[in-house]
Amino acid sequence: MGLEIIEEAEKQYIDAEGRERKAAYYLWQEQGAYGLTVGEPGGEMETVPDVTVCEAKAKHLFQMLYRNLVTGVTLREILEDVL
Fold first, then answer.
1. At what angle do helices 75-82 and 55-67 cross, to 10 degrees?
2. Structure confidence at residue 11 (pLDDT)
3. Are residues 1 and 19 in contact, defined by beta-carbon separation less than 8 angstroms?
């Protein structure tokens, strides 16, 4: 079984230099474990595999990252803090 996208979302924001940017969020499952990918569409993306095997926890983390506009640059640090 391959990678399956469970949820995806995009959010526009203004960065510190006043430029309009977009962040993309992906929650995916592969071989029974959930992973997260966050970054700028067409740009750098940060992926963290095997975050959890619990679907409810994975969805909660996905929503938290999206709500708080976590970027790929800080994804690993934020996940380390909350897990």
1. 130
2. 96
3. no
